[in-house]
Amino acid sequence: MTLIYKICPKTLWRAAEAAGRFTGAPVDRADGYIHLSTAVQARETAARHFAGQDDLLLVSVEADALGPALRYEPSRGGDLFPHLYGDLSLDAVRGVHDLPLGEDGRHVFPEAFPAEDRP
User: Fold this and answer.
1) Are 86 and 12 in contact (CB under 8 A)?
2) CA 80, CA 71: separation in Å to the nearest integer?
3) Exposed, middle or buried, 43 (CB in 10 Å: 0-12/13-18/19+)?
4) pTM metric for this prediction
């Protein structure tokens, strides 16, 4: 099973849980797809786009469960990032973890996060 990740403010994700689906953050809706990251990309995504933000969640999503609406497309530096063209069904979610800020101001990823991505 391949997991991909969405970094999301807690309030936005709790609203998605109540609604039964995630329709995206404002930036996702503006771009026309939900921005996701692979395990290798998630730390840089957190540092670049969520620096200093607390009250975030790391949502683990099973890539294969998203079907053809998931596309890997070039983004920063030519890396292929997963983009979901449509709503994220909560059935594809495999875990939701707090993503707090550490004392150094960087986000602290859960222990279960893939080891090959740890510094």
Assistant:
1) no
2) 9
3) middle
4) 0.90
Residue 107 within a domain: no
Higher pLDDT pick, 57 / 79: 57
Domains of the chain: total: 1
Please indicate, yes or no, if residue 48 is contained in any of the structural domains.
yes
Residue 117's pLDDT is 39
CATH code for the domain in which residue 63 is found: 3.20.170.20
| Confidence at residue 1, expressed as pLDDT on a 0 to 100 scale | 84
Which pLDDT score, from 0 to 100, does residue 78 have?
84
Cα dihedral sign, 86-90-95-97:
positive
Q: Give domain status of residue 61, yes or no.
A: yes
DSSP class of residue 111 equals: T
116 pLDDT above the threshold of 70: no
Give Cβ neighbours of residue 27 (< 8 Å, ≥ 6 apart).
Answer: 35
